[in-house]
Amino acid sequence: MDQSINQYPAFAALFAVVIIVVLVLIGLVIAQNRKIQDLQKPKYGFLGKPLAAFAFAAFLVGGTGFVLFVNNQQQDISVANASFTIDLTIIATETNPVTHEYKLNAIPLVDGVEWGNNKAYKFDVYWTLSNTSTQTEVELGLNIDNKGGITKKLTSGDNKIKATVFSSEKTIEKDIDVFVD
What we know:
With 181 residues, the protein is an alpha+beta fold. The chain is built from two helices and eight strands, in the order ααββββββββ. It starts with a helix and ends with a strand.
């Protein structure tokens, strides 16, 4: 019986240490859960105000500013005259007599003035060259500063050269015949 009494105080001390460790672990778990809950709480707003009100106000002010900016822009009205006339001149200049190379230019005349003497007038020229075969060529966005022109080798015989000029308001078509020996 003396042995069981001697073992009892050691068992009691061991039991007390286990209890203390378990209580410390439970305290740590509870403290960590509180920290996790605090971090998981969503924090909305700016300086304590809801962000939805700020977003709505920013959208309202920005939209109003944009509408006022767009409405105050000056409208650029270029050619608004529909009563002008367009005529067309085709110039075929032989640049190399040995190879029968020709420089072709289409010159639109707006109310009798070449290119309308205005940068605002823009023209697209569609070329069609016909002899034994048909070739096409396109020049886009020509004006008084960019007069364009194409260079082509013509075949022997009668060559039909047709230019169709498109402007924003009108279309004109003209053709010429060039005979090559």
